[in-house]
Q: What sequence folds into this?
């Protein structure tokens, strides 16, 4: 069976979109608990340090990638269609839970960076004053 490069490319382009959609659906309280638990359990297997068929060179890594892609697709398919469509539209508009969380994370990183920079500036200024006082004493 020949490898269809265009099919592989299409799948790889869909992975980030499905990942963001799955994130939004996982955070939505309207989505039933069983699909959420199935997703989390499957992702736990994917990131587990136990590598089941990892002894197969190269292909051993693809099984976890394939499982991750498959489980996200099954999760999205198991969610109510109206909720999935709502989250897809929010993702397109940049107003999804994922987008809000990323903006919040970026804001938090900027805040911590600013606080750290100002703290470093204070420490350097304090050491310079201390050094000048030592020289004059």
A:
């Amino acid at each position: 069976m020949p490898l269809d490069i265009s099919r592989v490319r299409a799948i790889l382009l869909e992975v980030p979109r499905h990942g963001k959609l799955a994130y939004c659906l996982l955070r939505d309280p309207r989505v039933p608990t069983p699909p959420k638990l199935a997703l989390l359990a499957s992702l736990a297997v994917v990131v587990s340090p136990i590598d089941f068929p990892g002894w197969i060179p190269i292909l051993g890594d693809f099984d976890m990638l394939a499982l991750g892609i498959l489980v996200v697709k099954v999760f999205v398919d198991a969610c109510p269609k109206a909720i999935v469509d709502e989250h897809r539209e929010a993702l397109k508009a940049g107003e999804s839970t994922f987008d809000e969380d990323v903006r919040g994370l970026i804001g938090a990183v900027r805040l911590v960076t600013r606080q750290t920079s100002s703290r470093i500036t204070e420490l350097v200024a304090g050491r310079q004053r201390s050094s000048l006082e030592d020289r004059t004493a």
About this structure: The chain has two domains: 1-93, 96-137. The helical segments are 5-27, 33-47, 59-78, 81-93, 97-136.
